[in-house]
Amino acid sequence: MFLLESKGGAIGCMLISLLLLGTWPAILTLLERRGRLPQHTYLDYTVTNLLAAFIIAFTFGEIGSTRPNFLSQRSKDTWPSVLFAMFAGLVLSLGNLATQYAWAFVGLSVTEVITSSMTVVIGTTLNYFLDDKINKAEILLPGVGCFLIAICLGSAVHASNAADNKTKLDSLSKDPKNEAGLMSTSASRELYTTNMYGRTGLESGIATIEKAKFGTADFLIELENKRSIKVFGRSIFLGLAITLFAGVCFSLFSPAFNLATNDQWNTLKDGVHHLTVYTAFFYFSISCFVIAAILNIGFLYYPVLNLPKSSMKEYLADWNGRGWALLAGLLCGFGNGLQFMGGQAAGYAAADAVQALPLVSTFWGILLFGEYRKSSRKTYLLLVSMLLMFIVAVAVLMASSGHRKK
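Structure tokens predicted for Ureide permease 1-like (406 residues):
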């Protein structure tokens, strides 16, 4: 197998992982905003996410002379570590599934900041002790504190932006020129159903609504009519609750993967080699795929959040946006793999620096989705403060990198 040993190589893997893990959520958000059912998108995503694990296992896991390699570790003696890897995949899959719904309620930028910060505050602390404190505590702990501040700022940004949007919509409803008023949830649901299942195409949108400028009340209404998850009239606490649940799930997957590859709890028999990062990632990805497939197939027939029902037949026939969803799965799969490779070399606590992915996601959120356009000065100040705190936290976390002893 290919063995990554240098600290520089580990940081390089983390940076590439950061770019990939920050981009795939933007793709899934784009599809939801264009009306594609999240169940359809996530089923596509899971297929290529698993494919990435196969590619990594049979390339990096097999090349070179270092042993053991991927194929030689298929032994029942490693099952305790395999179960840790599969648990890591389970909680990550639940977290990714939850964020797909949270993005609609809270927005891409704030969702990623809160979940990533929770991952660092909880997960990095656990990894620090699991890794036998190979990371510099005097640097690591202040970095964790910065992430905790970023969580609070992220919640404040969401609350402020939600208030701004409410003000925009209230002003439109009171406008005497707006005779029709705001479209009701039931009416928008009817239009959405016609658009999706009338086969008019993912890009067609709602023909009766003109293209609106980012950040305006008209834009918010147009978005609500097109998107698959309707958010008007729902409590902001629902979105935050989903986001916090996702953050807890994300906090556990990296420590569980750490246990799978390093066996700090001594669950393996004497003489049994620890799982390589590639073997652990393979089982991790299989668990991700199985859980996601079971839940999303169930959501096709028993949808949540008042989404329309679907079926396997309709899913297989829905090719609108499928290529983007498949691409998102590949990006996430390779991003996770590179994160684990860097963590095995430099410590999983330092590898949690890839949780800087909200910096990338925020860029896509502003560029593609017009998030925070025409918001209040208060929202802008909170947004800038949140991102600056996040940048400081990531820099400090990377500076704490250590080197794992063989």
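Residues 179-210 have pLDDT under 50 and may be disordered.
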